[in-house]
Prior knowledge:
mainly alpha; globular
Amino acid sequence: MGSFIAQFGWNLLVVAGGIAVFALPFVTVFALRHRREVRDKRPHINQFMEFFLVSRESNALVFCWALAEALVWWVIPEFLLVLIVFMKVRHKVSLLTYDLAGTIVGTIIALTWRLPDELLLRVPYVYPRMLTQTDEWYRKMGTLALVNQPFSGVPYKVFLAHAPTMGFWSALVFIGFAVVVRLSRYVIGYSVAVALFPIVHPFVYRNYVRLLIGAVVIFTLLLMRVSAIYS
């Protein structure tokens, strides 16, 4: 039990610390741009989060988050967008659009850059067995191997780094298929969140920090499960 708690604490620090470091520049820019309003209204942290998530900075955060996740970032963007289901945020579809745009740009960069294995394996929660498993899926299924990505635990960046060499039109088809596959995870995750909304909404509305902490804990446990399978 002591070993598990220590491992959980370390992984929680990696996930929560990474999210904080990644989001901090965007939140800081937002706070500076609205410093007079923040100073005058002194919004509660929940209100501040709602204000932020309808800002240009939140759009930029979602775009960059999705782009980075296709390259070196280890927290999936759906993690943030599913949370928004429980928030009083008007432009949820707009945030999804920025996420898909970031995914497309990140996919193009990843297919062009081809992150070497020695660098890929330095990314948290990427393991050698993931690389060999992805190669096996590509050998058996070709581009259709992408259907294994959403729920296999293997990061999207691994599928991109090990994708077969493609010409221009084949790459376009690959990108389109990748977006469809990614959307399937959104649809399922969003549907589950919407189904739970009437039950948990009275407990989480305007308690976004608790919801965020709970989501980070759950995501950390899932990453630990994936690590146990592939490491």
